[in-house]
């Protein structure tokens, strides 16, 4: 009987997330309005990204937004990053946009937050759009779409940072599915008035909000978190909007080795302990209910206990799970992830469990 009660409770929790909380995003109708032409400062912080700059800089130059500038921060690089920036600046001296380069000397560098803050403070426009050097805008209207959702009240716009697709690669699909699921969560929470994170690959906010918050000072002692911890710090139920138009995406190259990706996720997950209590509770509840769903189902099958009730409940959950994932994948242009979604979900659950236990035993020390 305890098995049935436990599974029923897990089923109810999963129903809450997929039928109510996440439905806020999957049923959200976002009006496409490119009329506002805010002046935008695009901020790119790079550390040893010379090769990646050869790709992102030309794509930034092709943006057709009315008024923007490009702030390039060389975070104490030891390769030809600064040379690439200077060459780009020289090539666009007569362009409609201005290029500003902020060189950070190694002896002055104290991590990405310090470098990024210098670039933000140097921005001449009140609206900031941040991305990473290893990203590329998905279209020429990236700036226009992301900035269109600013308003008098809206200080933060959360975007989607997609990963490039690789054929016949399970890891590629796994990474993209995890990215999709993460976006489903932070978009849904934001629309439910509980914003807690954004991704530095595609994030916009007002310079005024950055200055008012004291920059990254509140969490300067934490190596990572220039995106999610800052959003968690300043976001409220009224000042945060989302933009998931396909032309607003950025694209990055994903890791090609599982060990590298896990190392990256281990670093990222360390910031979650600094979220608000309510956010940490809901995120933990979601993961625990996911894991418990499959663990209890397996227990039921092995012991042949209450399978006549548990299996139908699991199939019902699978139906509304597929409905949510299908709508999200269509919105985020990840349709190829739908068919084998449960396999990716199970894989991610166990990878996240491994990362959680590994971080407890041996916290990551390098970024």
> Can you give the helix content as a percent range?
40-55%
Largest sheet data:
7 strands, mixed
Q: SS-based structural class?
A: alpha/beta
CATH architecture annotation name of the domain at 31-173 and 195-255: Alpha-Beta Complex
Q: Termini separation (Å)? A: 47 Å
The ordered string of helix (H) and strand (E) elements is HHEHEHEHEEHEEHEHHEEHHHH
Tell me the Rg in angstroms: 21 Å
Q: Based on CA inertia axes, which overall geometry fits? A: elongated
Low-confidence stretches: none
Strand content: 5-15%
What's the pLDDT, averaged over the residues? 93
Strand tally: 10
| CATH fold-level assignment of the domain at 31-173 and 195-255 | Spore Coat Polysaccharide Biosynthesis Protein SpsA, Chain A
Give an overview of the whole structure.
The chain is an alpha/beta fold. It has a domain at 31-173 and 195-255: Spore Coat Polysaccharide Biosynthesis Protein SpsA, Chain A, CATH 3.90.550. Helix content is 50%, strand content 13%. The chain is built from 13 helices and ten strands. A seven-stranded mixed beta sheet has the order 3-2-1-4-8-6-9, with helices on both faces. Helix 11 (277-303) packs across helix 12. The radius of gyration is 21 Å and the shape is elongated. It starts with a helix and ends in a 6-residue tail after the last helix. The relative contact order is 0.15. The model has no long low-confidence stretch (mean pLDDT 93).
């Amino acid at each position: 009987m305890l098995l049935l009660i436990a599974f029923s409770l897990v089923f109810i929790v999963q129903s809450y997330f997929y039928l109510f909380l996440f439905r806020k995003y999957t049923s959200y109708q976002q009006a496409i309005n490119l009329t506002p032409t805010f002046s935008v400062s695009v901020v790119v912080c790079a550390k040893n990204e010379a090769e990646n700059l050869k790709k992102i800089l030309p794509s930034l130059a092709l943006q057709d937004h009315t008024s923007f500038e490009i702030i390039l921060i060389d975070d104490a690089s030891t390769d030809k990053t600064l040379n690439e920036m200077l060459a780009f600046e020289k090539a666009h001296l007569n362009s409609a946009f201005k290029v500003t380069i902020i060189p950070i000397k190694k002896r002055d560098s104290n991590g990405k937050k310090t470098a990024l803050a210098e670039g933000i403070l140097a921005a001449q426009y009140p609206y900031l759009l941040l991305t990473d050097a290893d990203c590329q805008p998905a279209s020429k209207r990236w700036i226009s779409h992301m900035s269109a959702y600013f308003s008098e009240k809206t200080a933060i716009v959360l975007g989607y940072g997609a990963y490039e697709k690789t054929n016949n690669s399970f890891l590629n699909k796994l990474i993209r599915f995890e990215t999709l699921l993460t976006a489903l969560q932070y978009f849904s929470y934001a629309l439910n008035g509980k914003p807690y994170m954004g991704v530095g690959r595609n994030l916009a906010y007002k310079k005024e909000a950055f200055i008012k918050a004291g920059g990254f000072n509140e969490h300067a002692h934490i190596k990572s978190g220039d995106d999610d911890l800052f959003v968690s710090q300043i976001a409220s139920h009224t000042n945060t909007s989302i933009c998931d138009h396909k032309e607003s995406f950025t694209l990055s190259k994903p890791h090609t080795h599982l060990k590298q990706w896990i190392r990256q996720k281990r670093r990222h997950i360390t910031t979650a302990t600094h979220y608000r209590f309510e956010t940490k509770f809901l995120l933990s509840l979601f993961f625990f209910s996911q894991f418990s769903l499959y663990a209890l189902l397996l227990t039921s099958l092995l012991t042949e206990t209450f399978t006549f009730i548990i299996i139908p409940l699991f199939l019902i959950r699978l139906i509304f799970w597929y409905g949510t994932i299908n709508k999200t994948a269509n919105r985020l242009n990840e349709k190829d992830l739908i068919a084998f979604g449960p396999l990716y979900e199970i894989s991610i659950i166990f990878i996240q469990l491994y990362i959680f236990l590994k971080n407890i035993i041996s916290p990551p020390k390098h970024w």
